[in-house]
Design brief:
It comes from Litorilinea aerophila. This protein is an alpha/beta fold. Helices cover about 40% and strands about 20% of the residues.
Length: about 425
């Protein structure tokens, strides 16, 4: 097979989700009846926008002139030499405006709401704060009222991002129920949405939730993979061929599905998602939905069916990760479907392994990664030495680590 050629089609990856929003047995719409009209309105608006040249042109203009796309790929020469195996390239979403891939989806949904839906208010939720900052940024740019819900535990460990959102004119509402993290913030955002659905759009930040969110967020984030595909095939600034492996961290899964999706049909490219192993799978204190068969089972959480961490009674299990952005009990339904097909693989990094990845990228490449992205780097530390020097790994560096410095300072004391 020649470089850049697609394998004969075995699975039509573009045929999902189906009309009911399912990726095989996963996905769907599990919401109160009062929200069904809002989801139908959103789906209709998105389907129209997806084929509207004016909408697509305006989004592309803002991506170029405001977000700073395309983000580059960077050859990590010193990290590659240090590990002594595969050559490592980084897709630099940390260089996008606001410092993470989250702006791709936030800007897309905010523009959709402004241009196609006629609503005046956004609610959102955030864990690490990057989605909240991206949403606040898009709302400021487009002149939209914005409220962001955030667990109080996450507010404490992501204080700079809370301040950034407030500077941007957004109201940040702390959530002091449950584990006081992302899951609880999503619950509060949904309650607000139910109450104010006529005027309010829920700007969901990852490729999960009820249909059409998983597909819509995936499509807005697929710009990452579309650019990366062209850049890897470029022999001047890139290696001039497809990567052998793509690695990305997986919380809800939006950065991973964004870079995976345009590569799905190139079946010679391995796709690896890295979940948060926290204090270790045996400890039960983690957010690795696929790695722990005792806790990770099929279930419904916040509007969609997927793998969900649950206790013996079927209640949502408490999660732990050093990274607020990966600290979530479920995973996007498309990831669960791709895993069943064997098209993508999933592993995990513990907090300790992620910190090793964090330090390696700082010291060898002069790049301070987000703790989410450090999980992907942590896996590369193990994977690259096992590969040949003429093989290539592409890592999606989903965000920068400024927001995590408080957490890192405590860890390194």
């Amino acid at each position: 097979m020649t470089q850049g050629a697609k394998d004969p089609q075995r699975v039509n990856y573009r045929a999902v989700p189906d009309e009911s929003g399912h990726f095989g047995p996963y996905g769907g719409k599990f919401v109160p009846e009062t929200l069904m009209p809002a989801l139908e309105e959103l789906e209709e608006a998105y389907l129209q926008a997806r084929s509207d040249p004016d909408f697509l042109a305006e989004l592309a203009y803002l991506q170029r002139t405001y977000v700073g796309r395309p983000t580059p790929i960077t050859y990590a020469r010193r990290l590659s030499e240090h590990l002594g195996g595969a050559q490592i390239y980084l897709k630099r979403e940390d260089l996008a405006h606001t410092g993470a891939h989250k702006i791709n989806n936030a800007l897309g949904q905010a523009l959709l709401m402004k241009r196609k839906m006629g609503k005046t208010r956004i609610v959102a939720e955030t864990g690490a704060g990057q989605h909240g900052v991206a949403t606040a940024t898009a709302a400021a740019l487009l002149g939209i009222e914005c409220v962001v819900y955030m667990g109080t535990v996450d507010m404490a460990r992501q204080e700079p991002n809370v301040f950034r959102m407030r500077l941007l004119g957004t109201e940040v509402r702390g959530v002091d129920s449950g584990s006081r993290t992302l899951k609880d913030a999503i619950n509060e955002a949904i309650r607000d949405w139910v109450t104010n659905v006529r005027t309010t759009h829920y700007l969901l930040g990852s490729a999960l939730g009820p249909h059409p969110y998983p597909a819509m967020v995936r499509d807005f984030q697929s710009v990452i993979g579309q650019e990366a595909l062209q850049q890897m095939l470029d022999s001047q600034d890139g290696p001039g061929r497809l990567p052998d492996v793509i690695v990305a961290c997986v919380g809800g899964g939006s950065n991973a599905i964004g870079i995976f999706h345009p590569f799905l049909e190139y079946e010679q490219v391995r796709l690896i998602g890295v979940e948060a192993g926290g204090l270790g799978i045996e400890s039960g204190q983690h957010a690795a939905r696929f790695a722990d068969p005792k806790l990770g089972r099929l279930g419904v959480l916040q509007g969609t069916k997927s793998y969900v961490l649950q206790d013996e009674d079927g209640q949502i299990a408490l999660t732990h990760s050093i990274s607020a952005g990966l600290d979530y009990a479920s995973v996007g339904p498309e990831h669960a479907w791709l895993r069943d097909l064997g098209r993508s693989e999933y592993t995990y990094c513990t907090d300790e392994q992620a910190m090793a990845g964090f330090k390696a990228l700082c010291e060898l490449e002069g790049i301070i990664p987000a703790l989410e992205s450090a999980h992907a780097i942590g896996h590369v530390l193990k994977l690259a030495p096992q590969m040949d020097k003429d093989q290539i790994i592409l890592v999606n560096l989903s965000g920068r680590g400024d927001k995590d410095l408080g957490t890192v300072m405590k860890e390194l004391k």
